[in-house]
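Hey,

The postdoc asked me to send both predictions to you directly instead of through the lab channel. I've kept everything plain text so nothing gets mangled by the mail client. Protein one:
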Amino acid sequence: MSGYYYYSGCQDQYDPHYLDACSLCSKSLHNSDIFMYRGNTPFCSKECRQEQMEMDEAREKKWKSGRSLRKSDAQNSTASKTVRTGTIAVA
């Protein structure tokens, strides 16, 4: 058995440890430097880590731009609506 394994709770079943392989390219991390990102995500190189950081940044920008577009659409649609105020009498 290469790498480190931990007991998953099931009899005779051991799963690979999360630090066994790079999170991006799945290269083995056994006996090599480990580059961590966001606390618990291991990478085999600075390049793999940087690529993940760039993907996360692009995803956040896309999410934020989509969110701001929805927000401005909601503001525009409310601005064009007429709201009546007054008293209604019902008999």
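Protein two:
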Amino acid sequence: MADEFEFPDKGNKIIYETEAKGFNPGLLVLLVVGGLVLLFLVGNYVLYSYAQKTLPPRKKKPVSKKKMKRERLKQGVSAPGE
């Protein structure tokens, strides 16, 4: 009597109700969403690694003369022209 419940209906008819067999809808949604998130993360990793191999390194911004002069003064080297 673990899965079956008896409900007497009008007269002598007895209705047997059993639990629905199959996938739990909540579990199915969880698996689909988890699979999509996993696919997204793996795809991002593959694209990132491909871009690291194929794209040239980024160019650095040019350092302004004012900043270069300040760095030289910190290091104790006099800037040219002074």
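Summary for protein two, as requested: The longest strand covers residues 5-8.

Thanks,
C.
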